[in-house]
Amino acid sequence: GTTDAVGKTLDLSRTNSTEKNIYLVSGIMEDVPDNSSVRFEAVTNFFSLGNLFGNDFEDDFSEWSYTSLLMLNRNTNLKNFKEVFDKRLISFFLENNKDATEDDFADEEISELIPFSSLYFDRPDIEVFRQGSKNFIYIYLSIGLFILLIAAVNYINLSTAISFERNKETGVRMVFGAQKNQLILKFLLESIIITFIAFVLACIIAEIVLPTVNSRMPGNISLHLLKNPGILIVFIFGSLVFGIINGLFPAMYLSRVDAAKILKGELTKGKRAEKLRSGLIIFQFLISAILISFTITVFMQLSFLTNMDMGFEKENIIRIPLNLNIQDKKKLLKAEVLNLPFVEKASIVRGVPGQIGMSWGRTFNDDDIHFTAMPVDEDLISLLKMVIIKGRNFNKGDLQGAYIINETLAKRLDTENPVGEKIGEAPIVGVVKNFNFRSARFHIGSLAMFFGKGFSDYRNYLLIKLKPGTSPERIDEINVIWDSFSSDFPFDYAYLDKSLEKMYEDEKQFGDLFTLFSILSLFIVCIGLFGLSAYLVKQKTKEIGIRKVLGAFNNSILVLLSKKFLFLVIIANIISIPIAWYMIDVWLTNFANRITIPYYVFIISFVLSIIITVITVSWQAIHAARMNPVDAIKYE
User: Comparing C-alpha atoms, which of 502, 470, 500, 447 is closest to residue 345?
Assistant: First the structure.
């Protein structure tokens, strides 16, 4: 509740412990920027944590859970540095391990030097730092570019469509001495001015919608153009270039007309411009069809990930993080919870599926191995209903230490039957069927569940299996028990299945953004289609009037005005299928578990495009069909 915290203390001591762990607040730093790869709320000296983790944790060479950061001089030769660094690590290890020899490190990769700049995009396996995806950035940039192109197509289409009406203006200017380059400059300036007005409006709209966008995607986007002159310059320059691109073709098209033919009324509408407009309409609907197909697939993949069998039961299970004060009483807490009539099972575990990131290094048959470690108690496997395919479950006789490994690690150990073999000093008592202990977007790695004394009990979780039909209100009874053990810390719980769904928050946000992009692209396409259909109605007003006089019905007028656009939409959707299929397949390669692209995704995209086209064109067609035939025939 206050920022005046300097000089105050934080007590991290355990309730029943005689050792005091008092930390002094020596300073307050600014909040870590939203775009930082390193996220934290507080920092302390790493070597001051011995009282929390155990006094020997500094020299524990079997612990792989920590990442070291080194700041090197700019002119450091990384290859030479690594050689010296590895030698010192080996020497340090030999000094502290009398049984080790230099031969033990002959074929070992002692260290890996990774540029910090590559962690965000290139090393998703190092989860301690914030992760990003180059593919997502490329996709967002591509979509933004395509939406700009769709808008540019609208401008070009409408400019060339109304060019016939502007030809007289152009002819008069040419008669009064206007040169071709002057006409080109005039039309380019028109385009640039319109683009700059659109840029200003876009900035205003962006500021309004940014809170909504930020709520649906990771990170926090902010414009602050005045605080970021570099970005402002890029935007202004981009608007200038975009304005030139928009206006260049219409300017060239309008400036090449023959003034004499214009004034004599001998100029006819060009077929080439008509073909160009048709091609650009196909391009617009092609992009929209791809976005629609992609959006549907993203949500289907998300549904597949959240509903797939992860290899364990996740329904009706709550997880409760155990704070330091309750560590020494966690078994008593578990026993009290098990006495509740609506509780089926309970288990204490370090890390829960989706939040397991601890790595151990051990020996197996004189070879060094490393794997993801999951310290558990004897009840976890039965609580999550995991399938043991070899050996047995843990029991009280395994308190000296025992492992149950997954199928992936069993294959790595390359032994006919790993049950009975030892990892370090502890025997393997069973092999469990593979389950997704990380997000299902990744392949299942090597995992060993450890039961026994000696593993750190810091940051454990209590998992509770509720009986089916248990109402959320009954959880208040667990809260009462919690308060009797640790009233100083608030009771915090979450349903396991809901926690697992949060692992796919990026995919959900990705799908939401794709939905937004799809709607935006369709909206822009509809604006252009509405303008072109209005122009087409204007062109065919007399023809419509004559058809009405001859007895044509309103639906035939609709067919007359719609058939060309529908034909172009059909072509666009046919072309979009192989392109969308390829792009979707590339995106799905990011997932170890993925769907097969269903054919009906493209059918849905096609039907949506047809419906949107018919609705957009119908607005103008109905207006034309209701026009008095006499007025239509007199129309000029």
Answer: 470
